[in-house]
Design goal:
Layout: E1 10-16, E2 22-28, E3 33-38, E4 41-53, E5 57-64, E6 74-82, E7 85-96, E8 99-115
Antiparallel strand pairs: 1-2, 1-8, 2-3, 3-4, 4-5, 5-6, 6-7, 7-8
């Protein structure tokens, strides 16, 4: 019996943008783990939603909670394919009185992504 073909599970994106946004972002569709490198810090997170984005591929939402929040108590990024590559959009949230509030934009950037 032949072995089943291998499919990409991990995607890594190099983000083009300014020094305050994400530099690298990655996720694994099997383990649901995600990582973002931002402001010199690597944050561990999770893939929270994956769905089809037109005929170009999948769109994913990735959520991260920093140990020492500077601009946010939680960050969320959406990564999706475009005709010319990928886009990464992000926001930061703050919690006050147990309520989550949108606090800061983490930008809207072009990215070059590869699946392994």
């Amino acid at each position: 019996m032949a072995a089943a073909p291998a499919f990409a599970q991990t995607t890594i994106c190099k983000v083009e943008g300014d020094s305050t946004g994400p530099e690298l972002i990655s996720w694994d569709t099997k383990t649901q783990r995600a990582e973002v490198k931002m402001l010199g810090e690597a944050l561990q997170g999770k893939l929270t939603w994956r769905r089809k984005h037109d005929d170009l591929g999948d769109k994913v939402n990735l959520s991260f909670t920093p140990a020492d929040p500077l601009f946010g108590d939680e960050y969320e990024f959406v990564v999706f394919p475009t005709e010319s590559g990928h886009r990464v959009m992000g926001v930061g949230y703050k919690y006050y009185g147990g309520v989550k509030y949108l606090n800061i934009s983490q930008g809207n950037y072009s990215a070059t992504c590869s699946s392994l």
